[in-house]
Write a structure and sequence with these properties.
Radius of gyration: 17 Å
Largest sheet: 5 strands, mixed
Number of helices: 6
Order of helices and strands: EEEEHEEHEHHHH
Strand order of the largest sheet: 3-2-7-5-6
Number of strands: 7
Length: 168
């Protein structure tokens, strides 16, 4: 069995030393079990549900499908990076405002997905929103409140950008 010794993962702007992990270990396992970052959830372990969605070098991926060995030295962002501790990001606040949080299991993956989506599409249509979140399964809701949360976040982000532009 190949081992990784003294290699580093760059997670949420922090360099973590990974001692004695298996190269074939999933990045999700490493994040949760070795680094104590429990935000990304372990559900299907097949990349089908989106509960473990993270950003890897600015690309949305399912952490359950990424080997830890292939993530060494790359930029990893998890749900824990969305907002400074003690505050909510725009999309997190929108989820609260829209009542889009049910059991919460799918929420971290949805938030990471939507954050990435809104970075590329500030004013999406409902169809674009539904397509963007189609890789994230939620068993508690019909997605209506989640779509509404994306609309709220989109409007809030656009309003903030407009205010910032007015100040210059």
């Amino acid at each position: 069995m190949s081992k990784v010794t003294q290699d580093h993962l760059n997670v949420n702007g922090t360099k973590f030393t990974i001692d004695d992990s298996w190269l074939g270990e999933s990045l999700l396992y490493t994040l949760r079990e070795r680094l104590g970052l429990y935000g990304s959830k372990n559900a299907c372990e097949q990349g089908e549900c989106g509960s473990c969605s993270i950003m890897l070098d600015q690309t949305l991926v399912c952490a359950c499908l990424v080997l830890t060995g292939s993530a060494i030295g790359r930029d990893i962002k998890t749900i824990e990076s969305l907002a400074p501790e003690g505050s909510l990001s725009v999309i997190q606040q929108a989820f609260v405002d829209a009542g889009a949080i049910q059991c919460g299991f799918c929420t971290p993956g949805l938030l990471v997905t939507i954050e990435d989506f809104l970075d590329d599409n500030a004013e999406p249509t409902e169809l674009e929103i539904r397509e963007a979140i189609s890789g994230n399964l939620c068993r508690c809701t019909g997605y209506g409140r989640i779509v509404e949360a994306v609309r709220i976040a989109s409007k809030a982000s656009t309003d903030m950008e407009g205010t910032a532009d007015d100040g210059n």
